[in-house]
Amino acid sequence: MNKKAKQDILVCILIYAFMLFCFWQTFTMKSGSDIMPRLILALAMICNTALLIRCLNQLKQVSAEGYTSISEIKIPILMFFGVVLYALAISFTNYFIATAAMILIFMLIERVKPVWLILAIDGVYLVFIYVLFVMVLKVPLLK
Amino acid sequence: MIAQGLVLLTQPDVIIALVVGTLGGMFIGAMPGLSASMAVALLIPVTFSMSGAAGITLLVAVYTSAIYGGSITACLLHTPGTPASAATAADGFALTKQGKGLKAIGTATICSMIGGTISAFALLFIAPALSQVALKFSSLEYFLIGVFGLTIIGSLAGDNMMKGLLSGCLGLLIGCIGLDIQSSAPRYCFGVLELQSGVQLVPAMIGLFSLSQVMFSIEDVAKGKSTVLDDNAKNLTGSPLLSWPELRPLLPTIAQSSIIGILVGILPGAGGDIGSWISYNTAKNASKHPEEFGHGSYVGIAASETANNAVTGGALIPLLTLGIPGSGVAAIMLGGLMIKGLNPGYKLFTDPVTGPVVYCIIIAFAAANVLMGGCGLLVCKQVVKISTVKMTILAPLIIALSTVGSYAVRQSMFDVYVMLIFGVIGYFMRKYGFATAPVVLAMILGPIAETNFRQTLVITKRTGLLNYFLTRPISICLAILIVVALFSPLLMKIINKKAIASDPNVLADTAHED
Amino acid sequence: MKKVISLVAALALALSLVSCGSTPSPSSSGAGSTPPNSSAPQPTGSSYPNGKNIVLYCGYSAGGSSDTLCRLTAAKVGEILGTTCTVENVTGASGWVLWNQMMESTTPDGYSFFLINSPNVTTGKYDVDNPMKYDQNDFELICNHVTDSNCMAIRVDDSRFSDWDSFVAYWKQEGTLITSASGLNITSDDATADYLMSNDLGVEVDIIASGGSSDNITFLLNETTDYVMGNVSEMVSAHNEGQYKILCVFAEERDPNLPDVPTYEELTGHKIIGCSSRGYAMLKDIPDDIKQVLSDAIKQAVQDPELIQQLMDIYTTTDYRDGQDYTDYLNEITDTARAAFGL
């Protein structure tokens, strides 16, 4: 069986589920403001169905090019969770502390050498942000 | 008046404002995560302590050079520095990967400079006449412009039309989030107060483009490819300037894009992002090689960059003559103008006190564009080296910049979370073959189309929609344009098929191959 | 060579940015190097504000008229208290993101106060589609700063009418006219005034939902709407330039910026007051002695002659009210709006 086509079909099904949820939500809207979302969902339904038909046709093909495996996305997703932690760190401490830590940790993990380069880049960046945002633009980054 | 304006321009504080604004704007625009509107909004209080001429010069210089600066990172890192450069990202980045980054940035620089300078001349000489054009456009015209813009999605879809349209639908749905303009009833807000103003475009765009690109790059790093360049692209030397044979085909596009940009700028509320997409689409429709667009076409870059800078001058026209801002960034400047006693209107240009100030600002705006072009070309060669810097170093910096850029506009951590969500959505979308540019386009144009359509319904309560439509020539032209845009690809296919079928040489060849 | 140029350019940029940042910032403009002003009564035993920064929160974005007002006021307050007073913008949901944040996640320590404005804060609770949790009675009101009266204008070259009498005659003849407003319900001061006026004249009005006063003026100028309803501070300069003609003002007395424009009461004998006002409030649970110092400083700032003049220069009229007067004023605005919409 064609792995890519199977994956595409799964994506289509997920899209259907999402659209149904959005459609259900339109019933909480005032009449008049629900027209546009419903129009959009109708259009999306048509496109998704056309896509599904295309995928079903491709099931018979042999090649599985473009298939996305779990191992491929593991690292970017891990990095993403790291970024989420970084954002949370900002709300608990402040931008400068969190960013100093994030840049340091990130570059260490990626094995950037030498270490003094990491600290130098970190330092220059933080000074730049401080001058531009806190001093000139007066954005409250320090609480 | 113009002479007096020139005299004012020679004052030291104005010159400093001009230089700082141009250089600073380029820099800020280039940073992924920092946008033109953010820069201008945050600089308004800084202008309080400056003179009228210097303060507003600073703002307009930052405006135009930030719009240009966005193209630098759009080309080099596929992370547009401002929403107006999103149309440049695809072609610019493709060229960078092929090692032609220098020429890509060079093209963007020259085109931005030309577009901005032409719009500065329009502002200087024909502003009052052009402002009357702005008034001819009302809700029905805006609705049709919105629809016309949305037809671009079809051509942005890349290889899979259905997936592209679905991306567009997602963008349209996201555009619905917020308070409905007519009833203030919340749509898709789920009780979250911050969503009532809608999903902010800048954090969403930063997530969709910058953060998802970082995730892709990290994936590449894990596979062993540590920089942006493809393996066979080593040549970063040479000149950023295109040779004359390469430049000549771009000239019609540049001229046409300047006009489109100025017109879009004049329209209240339509800014650089809309201008660049419409220009890109028009160039693509008119091109003999539309398949090149999105894969490294200089014409595409020229169309997008000329237009988005031409918008800056255009947006200042209704701002200064009518007090009606021509773009989102111009709207922010309105407050800055009033505080300085520069009240928009015809008198602004003729009054002995404010007249010289206004002309000084306009001339400074033109100078900023030229300066920006010159500086851009000078630093091109150094800047393009960014594409050789390892992603392991660039990635955390882009993340940090994206975060502060998303935060700075409304000083809200909520926008940072929006950026994160769109980052992961963008990553998976691109993984599964869904283009992300249509999402951004639809987020901008969807609300415009819907709001203006519903306004039109109220306006035409008495006269009826069809009667109203038939009395407005601009609407009729736009409607024709939409039909042409929708059906021209189909028409081209049919015409091509017929040409092949009726060409005896082709038939002979195919017969021969059997 | 080119590398040197680019390095020098970068250095020049950095230096000029730094010099930009260290030019007298708005919070000390005018203060120069004056020593802490001791005219505010210092309560015994307390060292408030102790040099700590005080924040004035503004629920609208930087560069707008509310933000401008806040920045000018914060400068004065800082001067009076001998400390720095900065403005922070927390935007969204027409100010409600800020007010909800104030009520739900801010410590009442006296180092922050915020802008409140009608009709947003006074009518949020009664918005049928999107009711808010709080209103002005949940805050500790300090004082009102500016009141911007509603006024209406017509095109200068309109062939159908050229003054109030012909305008009203035309309206009664047609039965209904078209205008626009940002917001069609109780939370919009423009829409409220539209309904008050049309109800009083016995006619109908169709309102197009727009995105703000710029859009409203565009609609008027491109002949989509018949008249425009707006606020004096936004419309005075264009009126003086002859872009459009303001016919009447919805206030008790003629607006000082528009001495030749009559009030609605003068024209019809009925009184309609429409306005949007901006003032300041803080949280109720702040310790009393700190409350006293802060609110006295703010009241003093609002009544400062220099600030009043600065605001007059941008057509903004100071309308100082405090104490029970302010509370009654806001409650009256709420009641009028509710009556206009039948809530």
Account of the 3D structure:
The complex is a heterotrimer of chains A (143), B (514) and C (343). Chain A is built from 5 helices and no strands. Chain A has 143 residues and is mainly alpha-helical. With 514 residues, chain B is mostly helical. The radius of gyration of chain B is 23 Å and the shape is globular. In chain B, a hairpin with a 6-residue loop joins strand 1 and strand 2. The termini of chain B are far apart. Chain B has a two-stranded antiparallel sheet. Chain C has 2 domains: 48-148 and 276-341, Bordetella uptake gene, domain 1 (D-Maltodextrin-Binding Protein, domain 2, 3-Layer(aba) Sandwich); 149-275, D-Maltodextrin-Binding Protein, domain 2, CATH 3.40.190. Helices cover 41% and strands 20% of the residues of chain C. Chain C has helices spanning 2-21, 65-81, 96-105, 120-123, 164-174, 189-201, 213-221, 232-240, 264-268, 288-302, 305-313, 323-341; strands at 54-58, 85-89, 112-118, 140-155, 176-181, 204-209, 228-231, 244-249, 275-282, 318-322. In chain C, strands 1, 2, 3, 4, 7, 8, 9 and 10 form an 8-stranded mixed sheet that branches. Chain C has a two-stranded parallel sheet with strand order 5-6. Classes of the chains: A mainly alpha (143), B mainly alpha (514), C alpha/beta (343).
Write the layout of secondary structure elements.
The complex is a heterotrimer of chains A (143), B (514) and C (343).
Chain A: H1 3-26, H2 35-58, H3 70-92, H4 95-109, H5 115-136
Helix pairs in contact in A: 1-2, 3-4, 4-5
Chain B: H1 2-9, H2 12-30, H3 36-47, H4 52-77, H5 86-97, H6 101-136, H7 139-156, H8 161-176, E1 178-179, E2 186-187, H9 201-223, H10 244-247, H11 250-266, H12 272-286, H13 298-322, H14 328-339, H15 346-350, H16 354-383, H17 391-408, H18 413-431, H19 437-459, H20 465-470, H21 473-502, H22 504-513
Antiparallel strand pairs in B: 1-2
Chain C: H1 2-21, E1 54-58, H2 65-81, E2 85-89, H3 96-105, E3 112-118, H4 120-123, E4 140-155, H5 164-174, E5 176-181, H6 189-201, E6 204-209, H7 213-221, E7 228-231, H8 232-240, E8 244-249, H9 264-268, E9 275-282, H10 288-302, H11 305-313, E10 318-322, H12 323-341
Parallel strand pairs in C: 1-2, 1-3, 5-6
Antiparallel strand pairs in C: 3-9, 4-7, 4-8, 4-9, 4-10
Helix pairs in contact in C: 2-10
